[in-house]
Amino acid sequence: ARQDLTQWQSWLLDLLTDSARQVQMEDWSLALVQAIVSQLSLYPATAQEKSFSVRAVGRLLTLVTNKQAVLDHLSSIFLVTLERRHDETACALAFGAVASAHLELVVSKCATLYLGGSLKKSSSFFGLLRDKSGEETAARTVAIVLGCVGEAARQARPGELEDSVEGLVGTFLLPCLQDCRDSHLIRAASLTTLAQLCSALQPVLVENPAFKLGRHEELLHSCIGLLQDTAVSLEARQLALTALSSLKIGRASCRERV
Predict the structure, then answer these.
(1) What is the mean pLDDT of residues 32-59?
(2) 129 forms bridges with which residues in the sheet?
(3) Which candidate in 37, 69, 114, 161 could, as Cys together with 156 as Cys, close a disulfide (CB 3.0–4.6 Å)?
(4) Distance between CA atoms of 8 and 179, rounded to whole angstroms?
């Protein structure tokens, strides 16, 4: 039943996007996005309709060229996801869909959201006491951003991903991998995103056999460090192993094609 629902949602999203494309009026598509966003607050936090609507916004934004409108609506669906504390995957898929048409805008929005989460994570209550609630929200913010980055990489055009990958590694992945000891949530999200990025880079290697992932060794050492840390959970070490395997495959692919 769950699989049937997923398939139906996929068909409906395709139908929605194709219908909006046939209309060929950006103002109409943008008005539809605005209408959907305005309805999001009416659904319960765990409602499947809410998740579907978030994904619908992402698909429709691929047809919008107004950069500020795209950025504003990305903020809207992100904040809805942060508040509902449910189905972060829907938000990631929406960001990924937008990245297929506007990767630069998605990366820019993720960087802004990530910076906000990182600043909150590093701050303390009145500079003296830890604000545990604030830290949890900050960690969730960073984890959701990482999920969005992973999906953005997965759905981006190979040429655009190649141009953006250095920023993705330097802005998001390395900082999180090097400073995730205190947050299982961020640790798991960063390792999962790294594996997604490595997988997404395979088409880049096909188009450009000379491509090499920048700061590859630093990423390897971060994964190895987590893998060898006995204080880290078994689940996290398994994720580190997956990410490490992805990095080694990426390096091997590069060598084979050079």
Answers:
(1) 96
(2) 125
(3) 161
(4) 40
